Amino acid sequence: MVRVGVVGATGYTGVELLRLLLAHPEAEPAVVTSRGNAGERLDALFPNLRGQCDLVFQEPDPAALGECDVVFFATPHGVAHAMAAELLKRGTRVIDLSADFRIKDAQVWEHWYNQPHGAPELLGEAVYGLPELNRAQIPEARLVAVPGCYPTAVTLGFLPLLEQQLVDPLRLVADAKSGVSGAGRKAQVGSLLCEASENFKAYGVAGHRHLPEILQTLSLAARSVPQLTFVPHLVPMIRGILATLYATLAHVEVDLQSVYEQRYRDEPCVDVLPAGSQPETRSVRGTNLCRLAVHRPGGADTAVVVSVIDNLVKGASGQAIQNMNLMFGLPETRGLEAIAVLP
Ligand SMILES: NC(=O)C1=CN([C@@H]2O[C@H](COP(=O)(O)OP(=O)(O)OC[C@H]3O[C@@H](n4cnc5c(N)ncnc54)[C@H](OP(=O)(O)O)[C@@H]3O)[C@@H](O)[C@H]2O)C=CC1
Ligand SMILES: CC(=O)N[C@@H](CCC(=O)OP(=O)(O)O)C(=O)O
């Protein structure tokens, strides 16, 4: 059994981690933290977990967390910076769902996150936890940075085109839409029903913090620095991201369908749909899948890829558990086999 701690267990990604971990046959959630709800039972706050455990929230305490084999950070940026080194020293591995260790250049991180980097000495060993790209490094990692939700959907969509240098890397466009749970459970005006429902808007058009993260990964895939226009949008649904990606083909004779099918043939968490399909967010709701379809409208030189994920599963907690499985020698999809709920 892998003994697990979750820091930030009252947030949306934290409680999603617990929903998945409590059904995982080889994981034992042992420590769950919340500063605001310390002393309360987990299932009193989240009745969907009633009957699954007797866990009680406690203050984040490195001594208690250090008794775990692995600790997930489902916390705002900066929290893992402050606690990761101590846990690693105690022999506890760390899987961070925040952006603290995703960007390799501390100065770039500080620019986009507008705060000092709290643990630059750990950046060298942090592994970017996108199994479809870094599966070889994850099993030995002590510290995994789980990719962001938009970066997961966008990167998996562009990867085959850039790895095989099939498109102009200087003219990439990602038009992405997220459900409101992407903004977290904390109280904020933009997430109120009267603000977010019956509405559809772009945000972060001038620059979003996921842009440098996406570019860092795509640069490695393309072996050059691409240029990407990335525009996120907020849609009035709870879960899900749909990213529509555009790229100009360098080789028009290429069979894009077979490029995608070949690239993801052995990937258990990426499903390339048949030619002509339209991925929809409800087809991945609650699952750890990224579903993709590739099109070339009118047979012209623009490739259009549509990529969908559940932001809380493949975009966060499910992908974090996929990493845990690899780190502890478990089957990669253990505990992640759920089928989407429809309708
Ligand atoms: N929502 C999403 O779709 C995704 C989120 N992420 C990332 O995952 C992380 C968590 O997101 P999300 O679950 O949405 O966030 P929430 O705002 O829903 O939850 C944050 C959690 O962190 C705890 N927390 C806040 N501040 C501290 C602190 N200083 N020390 C310890 N615990 C703290 C909170 O509990 P308390 O204050 O009681 O301690 C709460 O449990 C973020 O970094 C987010 O960017 C990544 C991918 C997708
Ligand atoms: C809808 C919404 O607000 N989404 C969030 C992104 C989700 C998230 O939490 O970002 P990380 O994956 O980097 O942690 C945003 O745009 O900031």
CATH superfamily of the largest domain: Dihydrodipicolinate Reductase, domain 2
- The general outline is globular
Tell how many strands the DSSP assignment holds.
14
Structural class: alpha/beta
Binned, the helix content reads: 25-40%
How would you portray this structure in words?
The protein has 343 residues and is of the alpha/beta class. The chain folds into two domains: 2-125, NAD(P)-binding Rossmann-like Domain (Rossmann fold, 3-Layer(aba) Sandwich), CATH 3.40.50; 150-311, 2-Layer Sandwich (Dihydrodipicolinate Reductase, domain 2). It has eleven helices and 14 strands. The chain has a seven-stranded parallel β-sheet, with helices on both faces. A seven-stranded mixed β-sheet has the order 9-10-8-11-14-13-12. Strand 13 and strand 14 (302-309) form a beta hairpin. Helix 1 packs across helix 11 (313-327) and helix 7 (149-163) packs parallel to helix 9. The radius of gyration is 20 Å and the shape is globular. Bound molecules: NADPH dihydro-nicotinamide-adenine-dinucleotide phosphate and N-acetyl-L-glutamyl 5-phosphate. NADPH dihydro-nicotinamide-adenine-dinucleotide phosphate binds at residues 7-14, 34-37, 60, 74-77, 79, 97-98, 148-149, 181-182, 184-186, 311-312, 315-316. N-acetyl-L-glutamyl 5-phosphate binds next to strand 10.
